From TrEMBL:
Regions that span the bilayer: 20-38, 50-69, 90-111, 131-153, 165-183, 195-215
Recorded coiled-coil stretches: none
Keyword Translocase: no
Name of the molecule in the record: Predicted ferric reductase
GO molecular function, one term: flavin adenine dinucleotide binding
GO cellular component, one term: membrane
Residues of the FAD-binding FR-type domain: 220-320
Protein topology in the membrane: Multi-pass membrane protein
Cofactor: FAD
Location of the protein in the cell: Membrane
Source organism of this protein record: Amycolatopsis saalfeldensis
């Protein structure tokens, strides 16, 4: 079989297009809010004016946060959930600091006008201004969520616990919005500004409801997924096959993942991200998972006929981002699952580098070699401990990559594996001067 022919590529990559639209949207909104603030009139006290502007930017950051995690398909397929989640995280810290600036500047500003201490002024404002107590509760909730999202705290929490705490953000959004409606100068100064804020908040809320609730419910009601086979691939790895109705209409691509819920008594409440380990064929979906925890280990006990609720597909780790005629696929461990699916779908001549600790850890290798033989691809299995060295140094170091794939700088490179391995490969690619636009990396924590 000859390599798959590359389809025509757009002049501008989908990722660049999505970034441009997203940042243009954000910039236009920041400009509008600044204009509304200036037209609304400035306070004689510069602290109060700065505090009001910080509050408006905080409200905007809160709405933008909702948009980033709404899981809108157009954005997700072009930017990826991992990138959107990272931006959501940084927007959250921006929100935290702008809210803190809003509170401090307003309190100290009014305290200087009233010749009162900041604590006394805060008590006075809470007693006299409508909606301020709600705003204080919203601020406390955001502080709690921000603390739970800090890296040292996040690593010590189960995903379900962290997610439950994070849901308080929606309560904070509602409380903050009622405060803005009650005393926000943009709501009281001009009908155009008032219409803008209503549109922004309602649009952000509608995006979340559509992407996080409406679309998953509609797709699951339509496709009715259920387990049809559970196949052990190795002593600690298992594949789960699913089928359903009208799967040819499910917009899933090789390289993407779903959040899977298997509707049994003991695990219906758990949602786990697993990549598709085979390209969707319109009849079945397959995931392959390694037993790295209680949840993934329990997949072996799934029964045929178990109903499945799947959110997705998610992820930008797909061939829509391929720019060059040929490709290099690099997988580490169970990161082979989206790489194996991509091998079915990606265009041109393909080289696959599969990094494992020991040869017996190379799951799906017979399938991988069968696909490679059928389409004229090359597969290299690189085994050994993390510090293993070959004839050209570290197995995924600069010299080794160049020796295995001399034309690596003329290929698109797709990388999926544990964080340490992924970081090492990305570092080697930078040293080899492979353009960043041709490097596509999936965060292992979301992908497999």
């Amino acid at each position: 079989m000859t390599p798959i022919a590359a389809p025509p590529r757009p002049a501008v990559s989908p990722r660049v297009t999505a970034k441009a639209w997203l940042f243009a949207f954000l910039g236009a909104n920041v400009l509008l809010v600044t204009v509304f603030f200036v037209n609304g009139g400035l306070s004689d006290n510069p602290l109060i004016s700065a505090g009001r502007l910080a509050g408006l930017y905080a409200a905007q950051a809160m709405a933008f946060q909702l948009l980033l995690v709404a899981r809108l398909p157009w954005l997700d397929r072009r930017l990826g959930m991992d990138r959107l989640t990272a931006w959501h995280r940084w927007t959250g810290f921006t929100l935290l600091w702008t809210l803190l600036a809003h509170v401090v500047l307003i309190v100290f500003g009014y305290a200087s006008v009233e010749a009162r201490g900041p604590v006394g002024e805060l008590v006075q404002l809470a007693d006299t201004l409508e909606g301020l107590l709600r705003a204080i509760v919203a601020f406390v909730l955001i502080l709690v969520v921000g603390a739970a999202s800090a890296r040292f705290a996040r690593k010590r929490m189960a995903y379900e616990t962290w997610h439950f705490v994070h849901l308080y953000t929606y309560a904070a959004v509602l409380l903050a919005f009622t405060h803005q409606v009650a005393v926000g100068q943009s709501f009281t100064s001009h009908p155009v500004a008032r219409a803008y804020w209503w549109t922004l908040w309602l649009g952000a809320g509608a995006a979340v409801l559509a992407g996080r609730v409406g679309l998953p419910l509609w797709r699951n009601l339509r496709h009715q997924l259920r387990v049809v086979a559970v196949v052990p691939e190795s002593p600690d790895t298992v594949s789960v096959y699913m089928t359903g109705r009208d799967l040819d209409r499910l917009p899933a691509r090789a390289g993407q993942f779903f959040l899977w819920r298997f509707l049994t008594k003991d695990r219906w409440w758990q949602a786990n991200p697993f990549s598709l380990s085979a390209a969707p064929d319109g009849r079945t979906l397959r995931l392959t998972a390694k037993a790295v925890g209680e949840s993934s280990a329990s997949l072996r006990s799934l029964r045929v006929g178990t109903r499945v609720f799947a959110e997705g597909p998610y992820g930008a780790f797909t061939t829509i981002h391929q720019q060059q005629p040929n490709a290099l696929l690099v997988a580490g461990g169970v990161g082979i699952t989206p790489i194996r699916a991509l091998l079915e779908d990606i265009a041109g001549h393909v080289v696959v580098l599969y990094r494992v600790r020991a040869p017996q850890d190379a799951v799906l290798l017979p399938e991988l070699r069968g696909l490679a033989k059928a389409r004229g691809a090359i597969v290299h299995v690189l085994s050994g401990p993390s510090d293993q060295r070959g004839p050209h140094g570290p197995l995924l170091g600069t010299e080794s990559l160049h020796a295995l794939v001399p034309d690596v700088d003329d290929r698109d490179v797709f990388v999926c594996g544990p964080p340490g391995m992924t970081a090492a490969v990305l570092r080697s690619l930078r040293e080899l001067r492979v353009p960043s636009a041709r490097v596509h990396a999936e965060r292992f924590s979301l992908a497999a």
